[in-house]
Amino acid sequence: MNPKRDRKRLIRRITICLVIFQIAIFPLGTTVAISRTTDPHFVDNPSASHLRSDMLKILSVLENKIEDQQLLGKTKEKLLSLSDRETRLIASLADRVTQGGNTTGSNVAFLLMAALITLL
Length: 120
Hints:
It is a single chain. The chain has helices at residues 3-25, 33-37, 47-65, 69-80, 84-100, 104-119. By secondary structure, the chain is an all-alpha fold.
């Protein structure tokens, strides 16, 4: 048995369970997300570019870690409903995952991302 591979499988299973739990508990929270991006001032706002870059960081990490497309789609919808502060927090964890590679620290950061997306 390879303990690193077993640990990675365990972390991936826990993450998937957390995201599924989030979808089961908060299925109606995704309808609010659409109104946030349709605001006409969203494009003119200087912080909008930071928000978009944060979202791209988060989405790139999620797309690399989550293989189920339906789950990924629901997670993207949930991300749109988060506040700017919550998005920045999750983006900082996404940076840690990207920089850490395949280490325990990056796996923990990904679990924290999944938990925050689930609970916020």
